[in-house]
Amino acid sequence: MSDYPDYTSLLQIIGSDIMVPIDxxxxxxxxxxxxxxxxxxxxxxxxxxxxxxxxxxIAAQSVGNITISIxxxxxxxxVNIASITGGVAFNVGTVTGTVNVNxxxxxxxxxxxIKAQTIGNLTIDIEAQSVAIIDQPNWSAINAxxxxxxxxDNDMVFGEESYGSYTVTTGKTLFICGASFWMQPGxxxxxxxxxxxxxxxxxxxxxxxxxxxxxxxxxxxxFSKPIALAAGKVLRYxxxxxxxxxxxxxxxxxxxEI
Amino acid sequence: MKAMQALKKGKFNDxxxxxxxxxxxxxxxxxxxxxxxxxxxxxxxxxxxxxEVDIATGEPIA
Lengths: 258, 62
What we know:
The complex is a heterodimer of chains A (258) and B (62). With 258 residues, chain A is mainly β.
């Protein structure tokens, strides 16, 4: 059996269907294995008090699933993924731990969902060519969750009020960011007269005035703090004519509902 | 009917109301998510006797 002067042996098996159970027990074993095949099923179960290094180098056009389950008191895991396209899902559940992620790519979409009882320090260092931070009202307009209300009434006379209503959607809160109105004379002969009017925002459910504004010909106001109206509450937006001639009145209220 | 559903479920971004002489109101709703425009006419909006009526005549819908 000795093929080499140092008493090592060469084992060469050629066949279409081969099963070779191997049980090696020794103080020191060196067994390089080189497998070249179209299909290989390789089960490896390592039980040891300590394992030095395990290097796995996979080069393939496609890799199906690689499932790795590691249970240990301490783990150092370094993962380096270089890919043009692909998805990588990490699910890390630990009491304490440090996860270092280094992503280098021309385009990355990174979704991070952190649910924790307490978060100590969260340091974010963003180096990018462009970063946009959008406040909620603007984001609502982009995201199409904004709400805008207009009211139009012709032939308003002195002392007349006209109003529109909106009931806040169930499960949502309406935030009113601003309002404006415009009074237009109904006839050319009134064009050089004052066109006094006003707007009111009213919580009709609780009978509370939320905001009021008057002016000659119109006016507008942007609230530094949005006015919140809970689900089910009825917003009534009112425009009033205080001109001594017929006017057309327009009222606009804008905000968002989330 | 879709317009009333959009109104009740808040599925719109812009709402314009035009009060009518008979007390009803013509409502135009714009849903920018679906790029749709709804129009309806309602009596006693959000009231106990709220009723959608014919948008042209203001009469109850048969």
